[in-house]
Amino acid sequence: MLHDRVLVRTDTGEGERRSSGGIVIPATAAIGKKLAWAEVVATGQNVRTVEPGDRVLYDPEDRGEVEVRGVAYVLLRERDLHAVAAERFEASTDSTGLYL
């Protein structure tokens, strides 16, 4: 990975979903703009806020997809990340482990 790039593996939340009220939402239903969570796989040498293994929140519309050895990944810039969820943040203070 070069510069400020972050390689992430997306969560596979495709398919039917169920709302908090128990209503089944089909996979074909249109959803408004929604941010997505992914796990960091690799980072470039200039990335300062995330490490491999962290979970990050990003906008699925601002991404570049790449396939490596048959596995699909998303390539992002560090500045395109909206939040980081990592255990190291949780251990350092009395917080939720979410860094915004």
TrEMBL record:
Q: Where is this region: Disordered?
A: 1-20
Q: List the biased-composition ranges (Basic and acidic residues).
A: 1-19
Q: Which domain of life is it from?
A: Bacteria
Tell me which UniProt keywords the record has, alphabetically. Answer: Chaperone
- Signal peptide (UniProt feature, chain positions): none
Give the CDD domains listed for this entry.
Answer: cpn10
Q: Which family does it belong to?
A: Belongs to the GroES chaperonin family.
Descriptive protein name: Co-chaperone GroES
Species of origin:
Streptomyces coryli
